[in-house]
Amino acid sequence: MASGTGIREQLEKEARALGFSQFGITSAQVSTEIAYGLREFVSKQHHGSMDWLADRLYHRESPTNLWPDAKSVVMVAMNYGPKTDPRALLEERSSGNISVYARGRDYHDTLKKRLKTLARFMVETFDCNLKVFVDTAPVPEKPLAAAAGLGWQGKHTNIVSREFGSWLFLGAIYTDMELQGDKPHADQCGSCRACLDACPTDAFPEPYKIDARKCISYLTIEHKGPIPHEFRKAMGNRIYGCDDCLAACPWNKFAKTASEAAFHARVELDAPSLKELLDLDDPGFRQVFSGSPIKRIGRDRFVRNALVAAGNSGDIGLLKSVQVLADDPSAVVSEAANWALAELTGSSGV
């Protein structure tokens, strides 16, 4: 085993210099509980239409399943804490509420660039082999982060940190170096259930378990068809993701505003006008969301979300924009527009 203290100190020093908020190391040999939890999640169909989870489940269960040469995992995190509680915007019904993580530049680009720099340092200094991951490969980032001592998986299934609350982006480096691991972080949720009670759609069947099919983040981002009617009212003005369970966590009292400028909200995404969003055609959508993670869901899905928010807004000033979309070539857009029309004109029959 590489004498962990000296090497670890060098790695952490380099990671901190690159702007990473947290650093930890864990073994590539992980607990069988990770595999069990993932299998249960898929077997209960809680992954919804995210077939990529089921298709590469074996690789996601353990680092060594993805890369047999892996011996250790270096985990890092970057804080993206917002300046204010994002739930305040839920009251501004004529504006769209975008999840905090997507209001700035695409975190994948920022994180991966820094992570590759750290990886290059490792290769040049220790002559090791490694693989770099930021949320786009079958990697169990959250369990690995907990095992590496960055925080613990809260009852909302996301990482909670004593220092940064629930606002952390995660990155992983698998390496064939055998490094001394850090102590896993103890669960500090106690009897608190603030995150569970805050969920607008009751997406948590029990603490530490989530049914993605009921989650607004899943519905607005991953789900491709019409939003199920049973969840539309609960969506409110949430048009891309949902921060309610994260924002409700009491550990956020220790959270800090992100120091990384790329994670600060772009002015046009902080409280965007629903009318302006409804009027976006495909080129306009691509222009507004260039460099944003929102771009990947495409104009049709995004406008679908904005139409549900319009239907919930009670803002008659949106009627004209909604009416235009009732005949949109996209079936998912026209369906949402006709629903919104019925809601705004009081002819829904509900």
Please give a quick description of this structure.
The chain has 350 residues and is an alpha+beta fold.
How many β strands by DSSP? 8
Task: State the strand order across the main sheet.
Answer: 1-2-7-4
Given the helix and strand composition, which structural class is it?
alpha+beta
Order of helices and strands: HEHHHHEEHEHEEEHHHEHHHHHHH
Q: Largest sheet at a glance?
A: 4 strands, antiparallel
Q: What is the general shape?
A: elongated
- Helix amount, in percent? 40-55%
Amino-to-carboxy terminus distance = 66 Å
Provide the β-strand percentage band: 5-15%
Mean pLDDT figure: 95
Radius of gyration: 21 Å
Number of helices: 17
pLDDT under 50 segments (min length 5)? none
Write a structural description:
With 350 residues, the protein is α+β, with helices and mostly antiparallel strands. The protein contains 17 helices and eight strands. The strands form three sheets. It has a four-stranded antiparallel sheet, with helices on both faces. Helix 15 runs parallel beside helix 17 and helix 16 (319-325) runs antiparallel to helix 17 (331-345). It is elongated and about 70 Å long. The model has no long low-confidence stretch (mean pLDDT 95).
Secondary structure blueprint with pairings:
Blueprint (H helix, E strand, L loop, with lengths): L3 H14 L4 E6 L4 H12 L7 H5 L1 H5 L1 H4 L5 E8 L17 E2 L8 H20 L3 E4 L7 H7 L4 E2 L5 E2 L7 E8 L18 H5 L17 H7 L6 H7 L2 E3 L3 H4 L19 H4 L3 H5 L3 H7 L9 H16 L5 H7 L5 H15 L5
Parallel strand pairs: 3-8
Antiparallel strand pairs: 1-2, 2-7, 4-7, 5-6
